[in-house]
Amino acid sequence: MIAYIVRRVLYALPILIGVNLITFALFFVVNTPDDMARMQLGAKRVTPQAIERWKVERGYDKPLLWNSGASGLEQLTDTIFYDKSVRLFVFDFGNADDGRDIAHEILTRMGPSLAIALPVFLVGIAVNITFALMMAFFRASYLDLWGVVVCVAMMSISGLFYIIGGQYLVSKLWHLVPISGFAGGPDALKFVVLPVLIGVVGGIGAGARWYRTIFLEEIGKDYVRTARAKGMRESVVLFRHVLKNGLIPILTGAVVVLPSLFLGSLLMESFFGIPGLGSYTIDAIQAQDFAVVRSMVFLGAVLYIIGLLLTDISYTLVDPRVRLA
Q1: What is the number of domains present in the chain?
Q2: CA separation for the pair 282, 288 (Å, rounded)
Q3: CA of 62: how far to CAs of 134, 196, 239, in Å?
Q4: Which residues of the chain have pLDDT under 70?
Q5: Is residue 291 part of a domain?
Q6: 32, 206, 210 from 158: Cα distances, Å
Q7: What is the pTM of this model?
Q8: Domain for residue 96, yes or no?
Q9: Closest Cα partner for 271 from 201, 180, 171?
Q10: What is the CATH number of the domain that holds 127?
């Protein structure tokens, strides 16, 4: 197990380097350090001297990838890419282009993001599995048929519809919760209840239908027929056998959600004015703040790799036949 974990960590290094390189290339294809300086300083009445001073203060006066004016190893190290990327591997995110400490912003904004993403994740899995088990239990019945129809209909509706419709109905017409904003402590409940509800409802269609497919595939296997032949009740077969053996693909799907638990939802936080990491990333993209963008992309890649590793380890707990060497 230890050797497997070490090997996966070593495999992750070239992946993270590639992610950094791609992010760097995509960002500077459409932006230049001069564009970034104008955005931060203001497009009007910006002198070339002010732009150059801004670039020097933040290290954007160097070449992007290769410094032909330097000698030896400094041709590679005395560049914007090396200076801005290497420190990420020790989780030194540095300062944003507006001077704020990125690590402090991440720690501050992680709480609001988790306040929304974690309940959506946990409640969503419980609701989706319950709904899928009901459709599998009453398979080939009207409940199963209309359940699939509802799932397909919900999958076809854009997430923006749930957000805007929820804000209009629950907040503007019924005045049950604030339409946007956030507060700390117990007051946070009234601000997150609507985003959590919308997140759960918006994910029922795709989640329940996918879990239903998994459970129906398990129901057709030999061990289920054997359990039925022994006289076990259908509910016992579903919960003791089908649900347990369906956990492996469920765990695989849960990995995709892991980065969003910490990085937040871009749309949800933007529409509801939640000061989380999702809105932080959107604001950084709009402000052309490369320091924040690269940090958030790097953090997302690290969390995704950790999620894959945890999934492989959890396989051994769910299925003892799986062994990691």
Answers
A1: 2
A2: 10
A3: 61, 45, 61
A4: 43-45, 256, 318-325
A5: yes
A6: 35, 12, 18
A7: 0.85
A8: no
A9: 180
A10: 1.10.3720.10
